[in-house]
Amino acid sequence: MKKWIIGLLLIIVGVQLSFAQDSAIEEEIKNLSKTKWQWMADKNVDKLASLFHDKSKFVHMSGTWKKDEELDIIKTGSIWYKKADVHDVAVEIVDDVVVLWNRITLNAVVRGNDAKNEFTVTEVYKKDADGWKLLALTFSTVRDTHSIKH
């Protein structure tokens, strides 16, 4: 009976530690995503270059491209992500991959024209030896009443 109780306690402690670790990762990724939006607004391509995985892809309303093109678009101001107002965030963790969904209102300048759009943005991060790297970022146009299921 004593071994059974000790075993049960070890399982409970293990589960609690797992939840605590997931919560810490979730907060880390939420903060990283928030910081990424600021780097995009600031056109800080050096910071973004270190965050974006070399094989990352970016899906926009007008096309899909790779890391170097996204960085060039940001650097030249072809798209200036002036401000992303984040309304909701959901995170799912699967091993060393994290998927984050942001529901945002994006104020941007696109090819010289002001634009304001509602999006759900899907971000996929993978942990490697240098930390978390963004693998994919996809903008999905939504209504302002859209909600993310948690």
TrEMBL record:
<feature type="signal peptide">
    <location>
        <begin position="1"/>
        <end position="20"/>
    </location>
</feature>
<feature type="domain" description="DUF4440">
    <location>
        <begin position="29"/>
        <end position="134"/>
    </location>
</feature>
<dbReference type="InterPro" id="IPR027843">
    <property type="entry name" value="DUF4440"/>
</dbReference>
<dbReference type="InterPro" id="IPR032710">
    <property type="entry name" value="NTF2-like_dom_sf"/>
</dbReference>
<keyword id="KW-0732">Signal</keyword>
<dbReference type="Pfam" id="PF14534">
    <property type="entry name" value="DUF4440"/>
</dbReference>
<protein>
    <submittedName>
        <fullName>Nuclear transport factor 2 family protein</fullName>
    </submittedName>
</protein>
